[in-house]
Amino acid sequence: MFVILGDDGILFSLKMSNFFQIIKKEKIAPNGFLFRIKAPEVALHAKPGQFFVLRVNERGERIPLTLVRWNRRSGTIDFAFQVIGKTTHLLSKLKEGDFLKDVLGPLGRPSEIKYYGTVALLAGGFGAAAMLPIANALKEAGNNLVTILGARSKDYLILEKELRRLSSKIYVMTDDGSYGIKGFVKDGLEMASREYDIAHAYVIGPAIMMKFTVAACQELGIPNTVSLNPIMVDATGMCGSCRVNVGGKTYFACVDGPEFDGSQVDWNLLLNRLSAYLNEEKHSYELFLKKKGVLPRGKEKKA
Ligand SMILES: Cc1cc2nc3c(=O)[nH]c(=O)nc-3n(C[C@H](O)[C@H](O)[C@H](O)COP(=O)(O)OP(=O)(O)OC[C@H]3O[C@@H](n4cnc5c(N)ncnc54)[C@H](O)[C@@H]3O)c2cc1C
Ligand code: FES
Fold first, then answer.
1. Ligand nearest to the Cα of 282, by number
2. Is 281 in the pocket of ligand 1 (CB under 6 A)?
3. Domain 3-107 class?
């Protein structure tokens, strides 16, 4: 086994025996899964707020995913992902017992966990997965947690039970009103702020959701932390593809983040950069699905 250990404990582990084997696969939403894999070196050093990078196969793209849970004793890590393109599609087709090609991590700076008082956890869609370890750590630090969990509809809500257990109150929001309260996470925040004196907020979800939720935090005067998800290539600070602008300065989210002060983020730049390869990614996914004989979503033949 090769292990590269940096000053801050960042670690790279290479494949051996049952490394990177899928131990558990669970469908948690119509478009998403939770995997448990064997990755002892990552589990050993993982901290809330960190992520890792995986490759499904030899010629595969490397994609970043957030660490949701880890168990140092069993050497396993859990992660949750939604299927949105070629790599996440390939990942979703793997079965328990299969192996990932490689895993690199933990990466990124851990969350700065401290006592604030009441903390609002604002999670949209699969952002709930990244929120869970942060919620656990904030709770352990003595904070009172108020969670606002949002998704487009009931079936797309994930980890509700786990976040409910840690929170003194949870507001569940769905865009279509199929469960909980009809509305967005930012609407839930407005309700919560009438009931609680919120000292800090964590906001994690799609960039557009974070942009509007942070604006709501600013209106309410609530300092906030976001976890950014720009496109990453190497995820080790070398390529610059994950650059973001925060408070007028350029940062690389993979090494300087992924967490930043949400009120200082240039959201329009992030949203533009996220859509920079939209056509190429769509084209590549459609070609891939065509080769497999599957039609992309929305283009299926009606029965
Ligand atoms: C630090 C970090 C942590 C992440 N954690 C998670 C996680 O826990 N669970 C999860 O489901 N996803 C997470 N993501 C996003 C995930 O990496 C992308 O969904 C994945 O790379 C898409 O790969 P693909 O080949 O399937 O799709 P692609 O073909 O690469 O892209 C398909 C579509 O997704 C968009 N996209 C590509 N990369 C990203 C990105 N980084 N963020 C948002 N949209 C993107 C594209 O613009 C395109 O519209 C994280 C991203 C970062 C940077
Ligand atoms: S992904 Fe290359 S510098 Fe961050």
1. 1
2. yes
3. mainly beta
